[in-house]
């Protein structure tokens, strides 16, 4: 039984922090909710029988708790009473708490016939054979080793899967960076070519304008170039569609549109 989750502890975590909670969990698991908890009491007399102030493995702080629970349930049409007694050791080290118990003493009888004194005598007289203790220890170690191996394999698999995800993401990121770089370089080349072409076209146009003694204007209505003599500074498109060139800065025909010279 483990009270708090320890990442590399082979025991499964359980939400247990007291003897009462542990016995209640056992009752629920055993009777699937059919049993009623009638009474619970602490058993300090059992705690006194345990080693006092004994350090646990790795100098862990160890203390014991003991308790007894009385439950009731129906079976084959009869009402029964059952007593459950256990002692739990709580070991605390580095903020983690591990709890464990070797056994639970259970005694049941029809309602009204449960002899608690007899149960105490039976519990006190019970002695475990060495062969059973050795077998129990071996089984416990084998189970612990198996769980530890499974957990280790799970951690290794998680690590490998995580590294594979990281590597895949890195490959995807690098691929996206390469694609973006190629796209940006291609755009740079395209912009450079376009700018060069525009510059060449502008130089060619200006050369022809100088030879022909005209300037080129843009008609915003038709979006077409319009040529006008270089001897006038203003060009207008009047209402009938004709173009008029003038030096008069105050000239403004009705419904006329002034054209802008191309750079």
Description:
By secondary structure, the protein is an alpha+beta fold. It is 42% helix and 28% strand. The protein has 3 domains: 1-126; 127-201; 213-261, no CATH class. The protein has 4 helices and 11 strands; from the N terminus they run H-E-H-E-E-E-E-H-H-E-E-E-E-E-E. The strands form 3 sheets. Strands 1, 2, 3, 4 and 5 form a 5-stranded antiparallel beta sheet that branches. It has a 3-stranded antiparallel beta sheet with strand order 7-6-11, with helices on one face. A 3-stranded antiparallel beta sheet has the order 9-8-10, with no helix packed on it.
Task: Based on the model shown, name its key terms.
263 residues; alpha+beta; 3 domains; five-stranded antiparallel sheet; 4 helices; 11 strands; 28% strand; rod-shaped
User: What is the first-to-last residue Cα distance?
Assistant: 87 Å
What string gives the helices and strands in order?
HEHEEEEHHEEEEEE
**Structure classification:** alpha+beta
Rg on CA atoms, Å: 47 Å
Give me the number of helical elements: 4
The shape is rod-shaped
Q: How would you classify the quaternary structure? A: single chain
Low-confidence segments, given as residue ranges, are 1-5
* Percentage of residues in helical conformation: 40-55%
Number of strands: 11
Compose a concise summary of this entry:
This protein is an alpha+beta fold. It has helices spanning 19-31, 44-48, 116-125, 130-212, and strands spanning 36-42, 61-75, 78-93, 96-100, 105-110, 214-219, 224-229, 234-237, 243-246, 257-258, 260-261.
Write the layout of secondary structure elements.
Elements: H1 19-31, E1 36-42, H2 44-48, E2 61-75, E3 78-93, E4 96-100, E5 105-110, H3 116-125, H4 130-212, E6 214-219, E7 224-229, E8 234-237, E9 243-246, E10 257-258, E11 260-261
Antiparallel strand pairs: 1-2, 2-3, 3-4, 3-5, 6-7, 6-11, 8-9, 8-10
């Amino acid at each position: 039984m483990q009270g708090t989750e320890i990442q590399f502890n082979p025991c499964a975590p359980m939400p247990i922090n007291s003897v009462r909670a542990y016995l209640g969990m056992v009752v629920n698991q055993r009777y699937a909710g059919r049993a009623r908890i009638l009474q619970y009491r602490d058993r300090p007399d059992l705690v006194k029988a345990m080693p006092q102030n004994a350090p646990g493995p790795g100098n862990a702080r160890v203390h014991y708790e003991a308790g007894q629970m009385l439950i009731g349930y129906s079976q084959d049409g009869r009402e029964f009473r059952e007593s459950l007694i256990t002692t739990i050791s709580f070991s605390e080290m580095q903020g983690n708490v591990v709890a464990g118990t070797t056994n639970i003493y259970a005694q049941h009888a029809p309602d009204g016939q449960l002899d608690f004194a007899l149960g105490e005598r039976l519990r006190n007289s019970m002695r475990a054979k060495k062969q059973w203790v050795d077998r129990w220890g071996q089984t416990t170690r084998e189970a612990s080793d198996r769980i530890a191996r499974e957990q280790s394999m799970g951690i290794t698999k998680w690590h490998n899967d995580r590294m594979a995800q990281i590597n895949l993401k890195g490959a995807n990121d690098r691929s996206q960076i390469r694609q973006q770089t190629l796209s940006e370089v291609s755009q740079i080349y395209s912009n450079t070519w376009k700018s060069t072409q525009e510059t060449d076209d502008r130089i060619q146009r200006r050369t022809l304008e100088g030879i022909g003694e005209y300037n080129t204007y843009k008609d915003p209505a038709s979006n077409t170039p319009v040529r006008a003599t270089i001897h006038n500074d203003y060009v207008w498109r009047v209402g009938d569609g004709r173009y008029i060139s003038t030096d008069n800065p105050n000239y403004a025909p009705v419904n006329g549109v002034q054209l802008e010279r191309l750079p």
